[in-house]
Amino acid sequence: MKIEVFFMDEASEFLDSLPEKAKKKVAYNINRISNGEKDNELFSKLDDTDIWEFRTLYNGVKYRLFAFWDTEQGAIIIATHGIIKKTQKTPKKEIKKAEDLRKEYFDDKD
What we know:
Layout: E1 4-7, H1 9-17, H2 20-34, E2 43-45, E3 52-58, E4 61-70, E5 76-85, H3 92-109
Parallel strand pairs: 1-5
Antiparallel strand pairs: 2-3, 3-4, 4-5
């Protein structure tokens, strides 16, 4: 099953800011998920949240794109924003930001 992935402005800006080869690797991994591949190393739910994380490791750098599901009109993933992860734990402020963007997205839909 094909899953649509949409990018909020900040997610697009993050991707545009990456070096070309890293951008291609991130896009390749997102494409794998959008084509229905289930791989927790590439796309995983963050504990106790409605936020998911696209994960890419390229040349020792951890790229993360935060996202959430909108299943009201089919299987759609909305990418909110991205970071280069420098620590083992995902920063709580980044999860909060994704949650706030998710809430804003659904509030605007109503």
